[in-house]
Specification:
This protein is α+β, with helices and mostly antiparallel strands and about 325 residues long. It folds into 2 domains: about 140 residues, FAD/NAD(P)-binding domain, CATH 3.50.50; about 130 residues, Guanine Nucleotide Dissociation Inhibitor, domain 2, CATH 3.30.519. The chain has 8 helices and 10 strands. The strands form 3 sheets. The protein has a 5-stranded antiparallel β-sheet. It starts with about 20 loop residues before the first helix and ends with a helix. Bound molecules: flavin-adenine dinucleotide (FAD).
């Protein structure tokens, strides 16, 4: 259901490619923020969030630099924000319990391929519109189910599911002329793989994904010049996706709407005044949709208006 919300201009359930890749989206956001006077700092991990008497006062970066702020918006996984950057004793027990129980498992493996030529599918040879769409390795419902059940048994899928795209069919800025990039979103490996790299097993799993596509496009294997295989462990270690979950927490019924990420705190506020949350662990969840940030800013502006009104009333009453 969640994936039906994509709307890249062709109505619901349509997805698009940003020209220049996903980095171009970050660059556009940065440029826009700078136009409004923001200073953007990268490679500056936050180690601690500071608060006094339940009100946020700033953050401490790795290395010790302290930044004062009366508003802090966290877009990190809730376990990082609330269980690492704050102390449990600084938060209500019930809230800490909810964050500890937050399910953030995943069996996703991302495979990026650099290709010397486009795959040539025997079912539809040559170049055609099909190369610009989603190229699924999902022969039947049983095929997908078996891949999932393998992972439930604690084994990587013998015949994995894959959702593949070739963005370079449309966007020639991503690699040199004549070459292509194929990006594969694949499932499933056991979610416990977030604890260890499982490097060799991941490579063997990637071989099986490529064999699967090779059955449909025999030239694919020899066209691969380089490949990158990222499992749940890499996603947790490299980009802070705890458990490798791409949405900062599973999009299951008990983790949606008023329970995302915790009952009583689904309005982008947190138990610390001035500390807001806008990660995918808030409503409306993951995907590059910007809804959490949009809603969060709306709530911040509401709180500021309320605070200003309160200050004015206090002054008037004193005067
Ligand atoms: C393999 C994969 C495929 C996906 N495919 C799609 C897709 O096709 N379409 C789509 O719409 N979405 C897709 N998504 C989901 C989408 O990328 C996420 O939902 C989205 O990026 C979430 O945005 P966010 O700002 O909440 O979190 P993130 O993008 O995870 O940003 C959180 C940031 O916090 C940083 N961080 C972590 N710890 C700290 C710290 N201590 N201090 C400072 N910063 C820190 C991280 O480095 C990261 O940059 C995919 C995700 C993955 C992993």
């Amino acid at each position: 259901m969640h994936h039906e919300i994509g709307d890249a201009g062709l109505g619901l359930s349509s997805w698009g490619y940003p020209r220049g890749g996903m980095g171009a989206v970050s660059d556009a956001l940065k440029d826009s923020a700078e136009e409004f006077g923001a200073e953007v700092r990268t490679n500056a991990p936050v180690e601690r969030i500071l608060q006094r008497n339940g009100r946020v006062t700033g953050v401490v970066l790795e290395g010790g630099e302290e930044l004062e702020a009366d508003i802090v918006v966290a877009a990190t996984h809730p376990r990082i924000t609330f269980l690492e950057q704050l102390g449990r004793e600084e938060l209500p027990d019930e809230f800490v319990g909810a964050i500890e129980r937050w399910n953030s498992r995943s069996g996703v493996v991302k495979i990026n391929l650099a290709l010397s030529e486009l795959p040539d599918f025997t079912a539809d040879p040559g170049r055609g519109d099909h190369l610009g769409g989603a190229i699924e390795l999902a022969h039947s419902i049983d095929y997908i189910e078996e891949a999932f059940q393998d992972a439930r048994r604690g084994e990587p899928a013998r015949r994995p599911f894959s959702d593949g795209v070739i963005p370079t069919v449309f966007d020639r800025t991503l690699c040199p002329e004549g070459y292509h990039i194929m990006s594969l979103f694949t499932q499933w490996v056991p979610h416990e793989w977030s604890k260890e790299p499982h490097r060799e097993e991941l490579e063997a799993y990637a071989d099986r994904v490529i064999d699967g596509y090779g059955e449909l496009a025999p030239n694919l294997k020899s066209a691969i010049m380089h490949r990158q295989v990222l499992g749940p462990y890499d996603m947790e270690q490299d980009i802070g996706l705890i458990g490798g979950n791409i949405f900062h927490g599973e999009l299951t019924a008990e983790q949606l709407f008023h329970m995302r990420p915790a009952p009583g705190y689904a309005d982008y506020r947190t138990p610390i005044r001035g500390l807001y949350q806008a990660s995918s662990a808030t409503h409306a969840g993951g995907g590059v949709c910007a809804i959490p940030a949009y809603n969060c800013v709306r709530e911040i502006r509401r709180d500021r208006r309320r605070e200003r009104l309160k200050e004015r009333l206090t002054l008037r009453n004193r005067g």
